[in-house]
Specification:
By secondary structure, the chain is mostly helical. About 70% of the residues lie in helices and about 10% in strands.
């Protein structure tokens, strides 16, 4: 039913929503860095102007070139901020990946422990508990045991059934949490 730990971790790194969001943040920061670097080079604008029946000249056509002179402004502040944002996004992605890996390892350990505990209790053992309850009821009817012994047994049987069901519920909840972290649906 469960895959190997490496397969689970690789699927989680591909499908986990929070990791995918961090990865998209990285691509946004890379695009911002590229934009900041492209703004380092000044823009060159070509202008064409036509005026008909103007002031001094009739049918005037003007052509021009406009360019910022980047003597002091080379957009270095924006480039540094974009680089810092990119490094920060990479670190957040790595931290999120490690946190996800840690959560998956903890969940897998809990699931393994519950599998081992529930594996020791098989269906014949559950059925034998119900059969034992019927025998105790029959012995009570035949007055072979006291009411106090019967009540004690039924309370312990009831508590063991409650514990068993809570373990099974916890096992199913842990499997769902693992599926959520991996990003799979069933």
């Amino acid at each position: 039913m469960l895959k190997s730990t490496e397969e689970i971790l690789s699927q989680a790194k591909e499908r986990n929503l929070s990791l995918r969001l961090k990865k998209s943040d990285i691509s946004i920061q890379e695009n911002e860095l590229a934009l900041a670097k492209s703004n380092r080079v000044p823009d060159l604008n070509f202008l064409v102007n036509y005026e008909r029946g103007g002031n001094v000249m009739q049918n005037f056509v003007g052509i021009g070139v406009k360019m910022d002179i980047p003597l002091f402004n080379r957009n270095s502040g924006h480039i540094q901020r974009a680089r810092h944002g990119l490094q920060s996004s990479h670190r957040l992605y790595e931290a999120e990946g490690l946190a996800l890996e840690n959560q998956i390892q903890v969940l897998l350990q809990k699931i393994a422990n519950l599998q081992q505990a529930l594996g020791g209790i098989d269906q014949p053992m559950k059925a034998s508990g119900a059969e034992l309850l019927r025998k105790f009821s029959k012995q009570l009817n035949n007055q072979q045991i006291t009411l106090l012994e019967y009540l004690d047994f039924t309370q312990s049987y009831r508590q063991s059934q409650i514990d068993l069901l809570s373990w099974e519920e916890e096992y199913m909840v842990l499997l769902e949490e693992l599926d959520f972290l991996i990003g799979t649906e069933h």
